[in-house]
Amino acid sequence: MTAYPSLHMIINGEKVAGGSRRTHTVVNPATGESLGELPLADAADLDRALEVAAEGFAIWRKSTPQERAAVLQGAARLMVERADDLARIATMEEGKPFAEARIEVMMNVGLFNFYAGECFRLYGRELVRPEGMRSTVRWEPVGPVAAFAPWNFPLGNPGRKLGAPIAAGCSVILKSAEETPASALGVLQCLLDAGLPPQVAQAVFGVPDEVSRHLLASPIIRKLSFTGSTVVGKHLAKLAADNMIRTTMELGGHGPVLVFSDADVDKALATSVGGKYRNCGQVCVSPTRFIVEESVFERFRDGFIEGAKAQVVGNGLDPATTMGPMANARRPEAMDRLIGDAVAKGAKLGTGGERIGNQGFFYAPSVLSEVPLDAAIMHEEPFGPVAIINPYKGEEAMIAEANRLPYGLAAYAWTSDVQRQRRLAAQLEAGMVGINSHMIGGADAPFGGVKWSGHGSEDGPEGVKACMVLKAVHEG
Ligand code: NAD
């Protein structure tokens, strides 16, 4: 069985811990027990990381596509070798079932291999000019990147945040969530063991607001990549603006799912229940608001309640578990508040709505229906294991409800009408739309949102280009 590793930062390839640094206790959300003490960066650590990142950029911007691809492919191979250990550590820190954590490892493997190929496709273009003149448009790495990753995908988020800058020729300072540090360190270690120069990618932890203020105030950082809540994203965008730092913002969502009466309702149900309780609903693209056509509403709601009750809630290391605990103590508190408020305002609680057991952060798979518009959960991202199922009349009203919120990350729809599928694809305000499918990602596909869900993309060729800038060179 994998032991939980000792915790540290990685600055210039060195393990940094101890001294007079403050620490943060990392907790196993299934048991509430302490896993270890994480050292938090002080100002001197951050200054050192910045200085090293500047050196790293000077080295890596000159690297060849072959060198970058070899590191990414090597790290992918190491992740495959270490997959079980990485996944177990992620489950210990975050709670998700081991099988889900293992999928995260394999997603990183796919992404790193895809990015390895992208390293060779970062070419620009030559413009047509009179004889004797030459004009070229080139892509160049933007510079040192500050990347802040949250806890919900302890391996996948750091994979995205590290892979893209490394493919682009940038250096990167990663601050992954203090709740899930060992997973992030495991991913970075694969890159370092695959030959990445230690100056190129580093990992710090700290008090998030201190770290972000410090790094974004530095002229060394040229790009911020953040995944997290909209409120923090807006705050960081303002800090970044002061130094005109480019940003990629992958923020919150409130995933609408439109279910029409002509849909394959059984398939919609099976996919939606699985999607809703994946990672305990703590997923930015989680299906959240089920907007169901009246005539199939009762069937859909009752089927969902049955599906919720069939979830096996337990420790993610138990192979029978289909849903683990929530990742931290804040989440069950948010669930109690949002579900309590909805019920007080007249919503029907089909199942769940309560914590399970007295250790860790377990919460029952929950279903709310007929939730009034004035309930907070109709506006706030629940980020937990609760489905909101409401009946609607007709396509226009359903699309209007889907687009009602300022969020626009993922939207889903279930219908067999081909013309309607096209209308939905055009009219749903979201960065990613799934029609008769909830598979909306892939190493080759841009992942990102519109409106308050942020801007810019991760993954796909766009994820690498987001770490690059254009230069036009005109030679006479
Ligand atoms: P939070 O908003 O405080 O933190 C979200 C993430 O941002 C964490 O990883 C945190 O370390 C980081 N963060 C917070 N303040 C920061 C700062 N000033 N500088 C840099 N990083 C900072 O909330 P939380 O309690 O951890 O999570 C709750 C909410 O966050 C959820 O309801 C959800 O909306 C959102 N969230 C979204 C995603 C996503 O994938 N988009 C992931 C995790 C959390």
Which helices and strands, and how do they pair?
Elements: E1 9-11, E2 14-16, E3 23-27, E4 34-39, H1 43-60, H2 65-81, H3 83-94, H4 98-118, E5 125-127, E6 134-141, E7 145-149, H5 156-168, E8 172-176, H6 181-193, E9 201-203, H7 208-216, E10 223-227, H8 230-242, E11 246-250, E12 256-259, H9 265-277, E13 289-293, H10 294-309, H11 330-344, E14 348-351, E15 366-369, E16 386-392, H12 395-402, E17 407-408, E18 410-414, H13 418-427, E19 432-435, E20 450-451, E21 454-455, H14 460-465, E22 468-475
Parallel strand pairs: 7-8, 7-10, 8-9, 10-11, 12-13, 12-18, 13-16, 15-16, 18-19
Antiparallel strand pairs: 1-2, 3-4, 5-6, 6-22, 11-21, 14-15, 17-20
Helix pairs in contact: 2-4, 2-5, 2-6, 3-4, 3-6, 4-5, 5-6, 9-10
Bound molecules: nicotinamide-adenine-dinucleotide.
Nicotinamide-adenine-dinucleotide is lined by residues 148, 150-152, 177, 208-209, 212, 227-229, 232, 235-236, 250-252, 284, 330, 381, 383.
Family: Belongs to the aldehyde dehydrogenase family.
Pfam families: Aldedh
InterPro entries: Ald_DH/histidinol_DH, Ald_DH_C, Ald_DH_N, Aldehyde_DH_dom, Aldehyde_DH_Superfamily
